[in-house]
Design goal:
The protein has 143 residues and is of the alpha+beta class. The chain has one domain: Phytochelatin synthase, N-terminal domain (Cathepsin B, Chain A, Alpha-Beta Complex), CATH 3.90.70.
């Protein structure tokens, strides 16, 4: 999603992106078939191979997200799925791409539809995002 938003991966299929991330160590497939990951540093390495840049953030609060967005960055934010639904568990990444000050809300892409029925351009109030955030992730920008 980040690559498409920046116009850098529109020619790649989801399969190509997934395999590329796997090959860089962005996630692991366990013997049981379950996926373990996504690991932030290998993911950042993969992001860089696609023509983007960024940094891993271990203390990614709302103010840091707002600042990154104001500088035309994008944020891959780790969230706790158990805080979105009692039927879910584990971590998940959402792409935060816009902050709407008048609503105190963020516009996000959530490919798993974990936070809204609509995965693209879902509106998430700041207080709600703060409640589900693991406060870590990646800040991305054009290289």
């Amino acid at each position: 999603m980040a690559g498409d938003t920046l116009g850098l991966t529109t020619s790649k299929t989801l399969y190509d992106l997934t395999i590329g991330c796997f090959e860089k160590g962005g996630f692991k497939i366990m013997e049981s078939g379950e996926i373990n990951g996504v690991f932030h540093y290998p993911l950042l390495d993969y992001v860089r191979s696609l023509g983007m840049d960024g940094r891993v953030e271990k203390n990614l609060g709302l103010d840091a997200i707002k600042e990154a967005l104001s500088e035309n960055g994008l944020v891959l934010l780790s969230i706790d799925l158990a805080k979105t639904s009692k039927n879910l568990s584990g971590g998940h990444l959402i792409l935060v791409h816009t902050y709407k000050k008048e609503q105190d809300a963020f516009i996000v892409h959530d490919c798993a539809h974990a936070i809204a029925d609509v995965g693209e351009n879902a509106v998430l109030l700041a207080k709600d995002m703060d409640a589900i955030s693991n406060r870590k992730g990646l800040i991305l920008c054009s290289a």
